[in-house]
Amino acid sequence: MHQRQRPGPFRAATPLILASASPRRRELLASLGLDFEVVPSQAPEPPPMAGERPDAYALRLARAKALDVAAPRPGALVIGADTIVVLGDRVLGKPRDAADAMATLTRLAGRTHVVITACCLAGAGGAVREFAVETRVRLAHPGQEALAAYAAGGEPLDKAGSYAIQGAGAFLVERIEGSPSNVIGLPLKELAAALVELEAIRPASPGPAAGGRGPA
Ligand SMILES: Cc1cn([C@H]2C[C@H](O)[C@@H](COP(=O)(O)OP(=O)(O)OP(=O)(O)O)O2)c(=O)[nH]c1=O
153, 159 in Cβ contact below 8 A? Predict the structure, then answer.
């Protein structure tokens, strides 16, 4: 699938591929103004290994997704990412069903957790840049009834941590420290900086509306 370019602060300077099936990641990357292909990775997402740090785990999955898509596609820069929710030292992935979502939300409610999104930028020769970004999120406890209704509503099902700050799940969010886009699936500030440094993207030239002085 091809994501058409739309207005935004950057332009692609090299062919870019987003190795993701996530519509949120597609939207976030497109918001930068970039033209790119979408090729979801078929890499498996195994659970963390014993003793593996959460950021190392997220990086391992992001790398597997990027390399899976990059290997047969020379000349492109591939972006792979993985988002996990971490409470204490426990990694909470996507829920199996509404009951599992309710169990996760009950654990998270009234507490602060960390959302980690790891990104791997890779070419056919291997990974060229990797980083993991953390955002701290404190969820309120709105009461069991509201939690159960939200868990049953469907939105939590494909989301790490069983909530979506960009959707109805915003009603749960008491405080967020760090990048909001990182929680939704891509840390846009860090990703744009890495892509600029690799000369894979560059600032877009300002359109006619920018630059000149408007009416006083
Ligand atoms: C906490 C939170 C997670 N999420 C989403 C982001 C990710 O899409 C998802 C975590 O799953 P991931 O396994 O990171 O990604 P994915 O399976 O959706 O897509 P792919 O592996 O093909 O790239 O949870 C939100 O959209 N909003 C939120 O507030």
Answer: no
Residue 118 bridge partners (DSSP): 82, 132
Q: How far is the CA of 26 from the centre of ligand 1 (A)?
A: 11
**Residues sharing a CB contact under 8 Å with residue 122, sequence separation 6 or more, in sequence order:** 63, 66, 67, 70, 77, 78, 80, 128
Alpha-carbon distances, residue 151 vs 87, 156, 164, 186 (angstroms): 18, 6, 11, 24
Indicate whether 54 pLDDT > 60: yes
Which residues are part of the catalytic machinery?
82
Dig out the tokens for 198 from the structure: 């690799």
Which tens digits make up the pLDDT trace of 94-128? 999 999 999 999 999 999 999 999 999 999 999 99
**DSSP-derived secondary structure letter, 110:** T
Q: What is the pLDDT of residue 206?
A: 77
Q: What is the pTM of this model?
A: 0.94
Whole-number Å distance between alpha carbons of 92 and 161: 6
CA of 54: how far to CAs of 28, 65, 113, 206, in Å? 23, 17, 12, 40
Identify the residue whose C-alpha is closest to ligand 1 atom 6.
Answer: 185
Other beta carbons within 10 Å of 156: 26
Does the domain formed by 2-203 have CATH 3.30.559.30?
no
Indicate if ligand 1 lies below 6 Å from the C-beta of 109.
no
